[in-house]
What does this fold into?
Amino acid sequence: MVNPLDPTIKVVPLADRPDCIPALAQRLYEEFGYFHDHDSPARRTLELQGRLGRGVVPMTFGAVAGDAPDAPPIGTASLTPDDLDTHPELTPWLASVLVHPQWRKRGVGEALVRAVMAEATAQGHSPLYLFATDRSGWYAKLGWEEVAREPYRDQQVTIMKAG
It folds into this structure.
């Protein structure tokens, strides 16, 4: 999938670029590690390795800058069966949406979110859920609607759905 705002940015199944896992795992840990007492780059690496499928839940997409086989990873997003342990009844989830800071505001995040949404639809999953700490307005612009607001691990989160 090509990003319409910047055609040099590609969104691909992480299965196409497993070499990106170490860099993405480190960035995910740095961005979201505060949510898990037991988090580490090694745990994130194992998590991403478990999401290398195609057409299944879980599955991860990566955004890369360019067509070169070694183009650097600049973002990621996952389709996962669960993301909030307080809501096991809700499935599946858009999770771990992350764009490297220097690549933000170029449509990378939107392209990643839309790739996961399209994959969920292709697999027959509806609705799709997510939780956000501070980006619910951005997700709303992409068609997501608020389901609830509640505390989660010392943070206020907004649960949203699409589809």
